[in-house]
Amino acid sequence: MPRFAIRVPQDVVTRLQAESAKRGYDSPSAFVRHAIEAELRQGDSALSQVEERMAVTVSKLAKEIRAARTAQLATFALVDAFARAFLTCVPEPANELVDQARARAKRRYEKLLLAVARGMAGEARGALKELSRVED
Questions:
Q1: d(CA 85, CA 24)
Q2: H-assigned helices in the chain
Q3: Cα distance between residue 136 and residue 124, in whole Å
Q4: What are residue 51's phi and psi, to 5 degrees?
Q5: Alpha carbons within 13 A on the beta-carbon side of 13
Q6: pTM for the whole thing?
Q7: Start-to-end Cα distance in the chain
Q8: How far is C-alpha 116 from the geometric centre of its chain's CA atoms?
Q9: Cα–Cα distance between 127 and 124 in angstroms, integer?
Q10: pLDDT digits (tens, 9 = 90+) for 14-62
Q11: Rounded Cα distance, 136 and 103, in Å
């Protein structure tokens, strides 16, 4: 068998000696030979396994993104339908009552945002509370 020499730090040599004895190898060289053979056998398959896991992860993420997009489109359609129905069915206030109606609407809107924020968690809740403090 031909010789092949490598240089390794002393701490690696110490760990090799301890691990080879613990696993029942005749010598650290036998342990290193076995490790090299195993790596050469599994090198390509290990890379393939990593690629497969990455492909599965990307596929899952794409599926989740499609689901989120579908939910977003459904939400937009619902809000659009609600806005159309609201604008069709609710008359505008008389000119002399516009300022009073705006003030009431602003208060109701702030209450709505706070109620929605109570039902939310995390960063979205804080962002919604900040929006409710914005002055128009």
A1: 79
A2: 10-22, 28-89, 98-118, 122-132
A3: 21
A4: -60, -40
A5: 5
A6: 0.44
A7: 84
A8: 24
A9: 5
A10: 999 999 999 999 998 899 998 888 877 776 677 778 888 999 999 999 9
A11: 11
